[in-house]
């Protein structure tokens, strides 16, 4: 059964996470299908802009840890080398590939966007957030220093990144806007229309010019060290797995429902 919808309309490819009953938690099937749809959009000359969105109340609760444990077991990923290769491909690798596709991309986010969900939105060029959205990476609670695509410092600045990670609390949509992590905050009931309007505005531009502009900005970030920093942070992330396994039995003890966004610490899946 498909967990990602895909359609192309007026030069915009819309990729939709479609596992709302699980808060769009990312099992292996969803991630592989999501990557396939990104590749499809990248290869289609009729597509000028990619819009990533989600059905349901929440954009994504992050990795589906119960499924992840099963995936690891089936793939014999108890070995450090195998687990490292799997995460390097499915988490960091996918995110880096999406980030560098030479077409503008927009993430439209509502509700919860937790931990592994950041791996999906941060590679996008622009982010439109509904006014009820919130962003969290609570995995330090479990002995890991942050998610695999560790762009926190680039997305929100060093001190705010440390605050999010050290306290396991979340950013509201307005806080994310003030930090420059999202481009626009819109009413929830206008998220679809406003995101599509932005996509159509971009699609009216020249394709080669868009690709050049995106490459210029991304290369500037890489010259400033972003690519190397992400690679280095992934190595740090992997040392955290051993610590978490010893301390908490991660990820087995991390399963559970979304915490209320009104709670003092907004948590969720990694």
Explain this structure to me?
The structure is a single chain. By secondary structure, this protein is an alpha/beta fold. It has a single domain, classed as Alpha-Beta Complex (2-enoyl-CoA Hydratase, Chain A, domain 1). A six-stranded mixed beta sheet has the order 1-2-3-4-6-9, sandwiched between helices. A hairpin with a 2-residue loop joins strand 1 and strand 2. The radius of gyration is 18 Å and the shape is globular. The C terminus is likely disordered.
Considering the chains and any ligands shown, give keywords for the structure.
270 residues, alpha/beta, 2-enoyl-CoA Hydratase, Chain A, domain 1, six-stranded mixed beta sheet, 47% helix, disordered C terminus, catalytic activity, ClpP/crotonase-like_dom_sf, Enoyl-CoA_Hydratase/Isomerase
β content, as a range? 5-15%
Rg, Cα atoms, Å: 18 Å
- The helix tally amounts to 10
- What is the helical fraction, as a range of percent? 40-55%
What is the string of helix and strand elements?
EEHEHHEEHEEHHEHEHHH
CATH fold annotation: 2-enoyl-CoA Hydratase, Chain A, domain 1
Structural class: alpha/beta
Widest beta sheet: strand line-up: 1-2-3-4-6-9
Give the CA-based shape: globular
Number of DSSP strands?
9
Mean pLDDT across residues: 87
Overall CATH architecture: Alpha-Beta Complex
Main beta sheet, described?
A: 6 strands, mixed
Domain tally: 1
**Can you identify the CATH class?**
Alpha Beta
Fourth-level CATH superfamily? 2-enoyl-CoA Hydratase, Chain A, domain 1
The rounded distance between the terminal residues' Cα atoms is 24 Å
Pfam families: ECH_1
Family: Belongs to the enoyl-CoA hydratase/isomerase family.
Organism: Nocardia speluncae
GO molecular function: catalytic activity
């Amino acid at each position: 059964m498909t967990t990602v919808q895909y359609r192309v309309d007026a030069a915009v490819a819309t990729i939709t996470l479609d596992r709302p009953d699980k808060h769009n938690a990312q099992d292996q099937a969803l991630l592989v299908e999501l990557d396939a749809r990104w590749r499809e959009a990248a290869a289609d000359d009729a597509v000028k802009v990619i819009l990533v969105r989600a059905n349901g109340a929440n954009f994504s609760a992050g990795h589906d840890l119960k499924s992840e444990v099963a995936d690891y077991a089936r793939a014999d990923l108890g070995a450090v080398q195998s687990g490292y290769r799997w995460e390097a491909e499915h988490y960091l690798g996918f995110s880096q590939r999406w980030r560098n596709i030479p077409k503008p991309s927009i993430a439209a986010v509502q509700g919860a966007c937790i931990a592994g969900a950041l791996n999906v939105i941060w590679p996008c060029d622009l982010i439109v957030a509904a006014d009820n959205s919130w962003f969290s990476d609570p995995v330090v609670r479990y002995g890991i220093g942050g998610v695999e695509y560790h762009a926190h410092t680039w997305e929100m600045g060093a001190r705010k990144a440390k605050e999010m990670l050290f306290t396991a609390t979340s950013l509201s949509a307005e806080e994310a806007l003030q930090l420059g992590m999202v481009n626009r905050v819109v009413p929830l009931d206008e998220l679809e229309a406003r995101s599509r309007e932005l996509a159509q505005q971009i699609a009216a531009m020249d394709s080669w010019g868009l690709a050049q502009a995106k490459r210029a900005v991304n290369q500037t970030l890489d010259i400033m060290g972003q690519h190397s920093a992400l690679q280095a942070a992934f190595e740090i992330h992997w040392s955290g797995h051993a610590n978490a396994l010893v301390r908490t039995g991660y990820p087995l003890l991390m399963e559970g429902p979304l915490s209320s966004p009104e709670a003092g610490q907004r948590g969720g899946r990694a």
